[in-house]
Structures are given as C-alpha cells and as structure tokens.
Amino acid sequence: MSLELWMSNLWFYSLQTGILILVGGLLPWIFRLRAPGILHLYWRLLMVACLLLILQPLALNTVSEPISVPLVEELVATANQSPGVQGSNSVNPYAWLGGLLVTGILLRLIWLGVGFHRLHLLQHRTTRQSLPPHVHSLEEELGVSAEYRMSGEVAGPVTFGWLRPLIVLPESFGQLEQGMQRAVVCHE
Length: 188
Description:
Blueprint: H1 3-30, H2 36-52, H3 72-81, H4 93-124, E1 127-128, H5 133-142, E2 147-151, E3 158-160, E4 166-170, H6 178-187
Helix pairs in contact: 1-2, 1-4, 5-6
C-alpha cells in the first residue's frame, strides 16, 4: 500500500469517525439522556462503532487496463535519449501529511515520557506515611491495598501504578475529617 493510499484511507477514516462522534454526541443531548448507566453504555457503544469503522474495506488502487512491463532494452534506450533526469517541483501533500502525523506521534510520545519521568521523580520525593486505622480498615473492607505517601508538591490526591499502586496525598490530608478521608481514599 502506498503512502498516498494509506493517508487517503486515514483521512476518510478520521472524517467518518469525526462525523459519527459529532452526531453521536448530539443524540444524548437531543433525547435528554441523563441516566449515568445508560450514558456509559451509549458512549461505549459509540466507541465500538468508531473502532468498527476500521474494518470497512480500504480504498484499493484498481487498474482497469493490464500493466505492461517494459523490457530492459527499452528502458536503457529511453534513458539514453533523455537529456537528464528532471525533478518535479510539485509538492506531494500526502508526504507532508505523513510527516506531520509522524511528528505529532513523536511529540506525544515525548510528552508522555516527560510525564512518566515527573511521576518517577514525585515517587522518590514523597515520604511514606502511616494512615489512620479507619483508612486501613477501609482497605480491608474493599479488598484492595496501596502504598500511601505524603507530598507538599500536590494539591490533590494522585494515584499511579498498576501492579503496585501508589497514592500520593497532599499534606493537608491529615487535617480533613474522618468521613472526608474515607471518601478520598475510596475514590483513589
């Protein structure tokens, strides 16, 4: 598949997805859907529909006439007759779009890398903190566990980590009443 065809398919997929999201985003507003469970299911189905658009047949380069392959002698004779190779001054827009797409992907990966680095630094600049007993009893009730740390660098709780979750709480967490502390820990 050529770059031009690939970019064309990407453009049409993006256009179709954009239209689907635009129309799909207006429907809950038009029909005044307010129930969180129904909205959650609706947005998940809309996401699946956007992903299923990928499975539609791709635009193919169809050739109506058979392609004739020139003989090597014909190519050499043609090359000897031409005064020189002339370049084209036209700009291929698909090459620019491809370059822009790759640049955007690289910038996003750099942005994510910087974010992961900042989380890593935050993890090492925090202090381990023992939490009140009602928080530990809450962990047992919910059947989850995490490591808790305190930091003056965060304004609100931050949770990260998949296998060993880490919850960084602001220093003001200890000043909250017991019910608020339980709510914050439950949310995180």
